[in-house]
User: Fold this.
Amino acid sequence: MEKFLAHGSFSLQIEGRILLLHGEGPGNAELIEQYQMAVAQHREALAGKPWGNLVVLHGESLLTHDAVQLMNLSIGRSCASGMVAAAVVLSDTNYPGLGEQLWHQIYVAADMPHAFFDNIESARGWLLEQIDLANSKT
Assistant:
């Protein structure tokens, strides 16, 4: 398979039990490969207790088919390390319905509870509820 330059960008930051991901698309498999390498150390830091992923997607948050497959694997690894839910904010997009449909399919395929929000504050509140709920079950 021919390698291409990564399209899109991302940044990661841990805030308590939340992994904050800012992503800008569209993205390809090479971007998701870079993401997988970067997110591994964050997963390791969060492992052991329930945590959540706050995903803020800027622009057109679409992925190529092979990038979607890699993202499914990545979410599976996150789930294995304790991720209990994903809260998604679609920002600065011309096609929010298309982005939401794609990411809904990705999270459903990974059997990951998720919800979409208009702002980071609402997303963070819901995510903290999901983490607290998971903590009460352990």
The longest strand covers residues 51-63. Strands lie at 9-15, 18-27, 51-63, 83-91, 114-117. The chain has a mean pLDDT of 95. The helical segments are 29-46, 65-80, 96-109, 120-137.
